[in-house]
Write a structure and sequence with these properties.
Layout: E1 13-18, H1 19-33, E2 36-37, H2 42-46, H3 50-57, E3 65-67, H4 70-78, E4 85-87, H5 96-101, E5 105-108, H6 111-119, E6 126-130, E7 138-139, H7 147-152, E8 157-159, H8 171-184, E9 192-194, H9 198-203, E10 211-212, E11 235-247, E12 252-253, E13 259-260, E14 265-270, E15 287-290, E16 293-298, E17 306-309, E18 320-327, E19 330-332, H10 334-340, H11 345-350, E20 358-361
Parallel strand pairs: 1-20, 2-10, 3-4, 4-5, 5-6, 6-7, 6-8, 8-9
Antiparallel strand pairs: 1-11, 11-14, 11-18, 12-13, 14-17, 15-16, 16-17, 18-19
Helix pairs in contact: 1-3
Bound molecules: pyridoxal-5'-phosphate.
């Protein structure tokens, strides 16, 4: 992962990640739910950098880290992270050997998978129970069929995943009821039971379970403006102004001429575009923080550059513009920017491309 050093020229655009804010968001959830954390650092910690984020969160003594794949788990191991790492996307039985080699914890749901894990020598694993998402896990009313396998190699944990915890539609209670029925069908109670993603942990507290699995909340995305617990912003997308021009009345800006100057406007060219993950849909709706004010993104976002209308704002070549996150008293939250571009905040964060260097502030 490229990081910035002071001897380099300032990158044209970069992502600043506030590790101290991640820790405060994690602690707030932990306090509210009164349980331990199993932070989800899958997908490179939602694009923020799995290794630095996991290293920071390690200070909170999480029960484990959650990743999607063996490869993601191997990256944490190579970085020296010793804590348990649970792989949540189902692992095919033929890949369990490699998973075991990296000392990762699989999530299993079939007699074949459990038998293969047992044959390899066993060790901690979590039972995935499907209660309504219909994505991964053994159906809640079929868990009894695993009794013999579970007896032979008891799981350390068992879990389910909510499909609509951010909506108040009773599905959470129904899914959890099914989860309890499934647990009752097991010959033993696994030591670590877990169900809650961020939205469920924000909504319901204290937790009735042994840990929570927050992802997006840690990274600064809340469950809507009315939620009782709000995260601190974590991710700041910044880019440099590389040119300025006066665009005369009636002239247009960018491809397809979707924006027309009304009167002479002072237009700044900013060195970030959809090739960095600042999505094309944000053209003519996105906003930029510069010179203590807010400037609209004008015209279509191009691959490497976008234009903002900086008329009336102090804005010069080399100045830093914020497209996402905080600058001074202004905040462009991930939720707000995602909404402007008709995206989910998850896609916005995970879509920030690797060509944007990540810089870290607030680390230990
Ligand atoms: C991604 C994921 C989470 C975290 O979800 P957030 O909405 O980001 O909090 C929790 N559990 C599982 C199984 C996941 O895949």
């Amino acid at each position: 992962m490229p990081t910035q050093s002071s001897s380099e020229t300032k990158p044209r655009a970069w992502v600043e990640v506030d590790l101290a804010a991640i820790l405060r968001n994690a602690k707030a959830l932990e306090r509210q739910t009164r349980t331990r954390l199993l932070p989800m650092v899958k997908a490179d910690a939602y694009g923020l950098g799995a290794v630095p984020v996991a290293r920071a969160l390690d200070a909170l003594d999480p029960i484990a880290f959650g990743v999607s794949s063996i490869v993601e788990g191997e990256e944490l191991r190579r970085a020296g992270i010793q804590r348990p790492v649970v792989v949540f996307t189902p692992t095919l039985p033929r890949d369990l050997d490699r998973l075991r080699h990296a000392k990762l914890t699989p999530t299993l749901a079939s007699p074949e998978g459990i038998a293969r894990w047992t044959a390899l020598g066993g060790g901690p694993w979590h039972l995935a129970i499907e209660t309504g998402m219909h994505r991964a896990g053994i159906a809640w009313d079929a868990v009894g069929g695993l009794a013999a396998a579970v007896q032979a190699e008891p799981p350390e944990g068992a879990f389910t995943h909510f499909h609509s915890a951010e909506l108040d539609n009773q599905s959470l209670s129904l899914q959890e009821e099914r989860f309890r029925v499934a647990l009752d069908a097991l010959p033993l109670r696994p030591r670590v039971l877990h169900t809650e993603n961020s939205a469920a942990a924000v909504r319901r507290h204290p937790s009735p379970w042994d840990c929570i699995r927050p992802g997006v909340f840690l990274y600064g995305v809340g469950s809507g403006p009315t939620a009782a617990l709000q995260p601190e912003p974590v991710v700041h997308l910044r880019a440099q102004v590389v040119e300025l021009r006066i665009v005369p009345d009636g002239e247009t800006v960018s491809y397809d001429a979707t924006w027309v100057a009304r009167g002479a406007r002072r237009i700044a060219t900013v060195a970030v575009g959809y090739g960095d993950g600042y999505r094309r849909h944000l053209g003519n709706v996105g906003k930029a923080l510069v010179g203590g004010g807010i400037a609209p993104v004008v015209g279509v976002v191009t691959m490497d550059m976008l234009m903002i209308d900086a008329t009336g704002l102090p804005c010069e070549e080399g100045d830093v513009v914020t497209l996402l996150g905080r600058s001074g008293e202004h905040l462009l939250s991930a939720e707000a920017v995602a909404e402007m571009g008709h995206l989910s905040p998850y896609e916005l964060l995970t879509g920030l491309r690797q060509r944007l260097p990540r810089t870290y502030v607030g680390g230990a």
